[in-house]
What does this fold into?
Amino acid sequence: MVARRWLGLVVGGAAVLGVAAGAGVVLRGRSLGPSAPDAASRPTFVVGPSVSPQPLASPSPPVAESDYVVQPGDSLRSIARDKYGDPEQWPRVYDANRDVIGSDPDTLRAGSRLRIP
It folds into this structure.
């Protein structure tokens, strides 16, 4: 007797669910899949104005050369260390001043005026 009641409840519940599902299909006119969102419930994508690339800044003008008067005890390495922060940059000073220094970069004369590029 109890088994018949359970069977009746299961069958009756299934019938109720079937009717409800059928009514949903009829009312929506489509399958039981997700409904298509209407315009009011669609996600909104905000598209900003198009961004044009910024023009590249014109290259900065070359650093003006400065003059340096050689002091007693100076070397091209010490001048490069003072002016560039790197003693290994001494060839830059030498190349810009070959006419003043001559062919031997180790012979600087005190009082000579060098261009520092």
Summary: The chain has two domains: 1-31, 66-116. The chain has a mean pLDDT of 73. The longest strand covers residues 66-69. The CA atoms of residues 20 and 65 lie 89 Å apart.
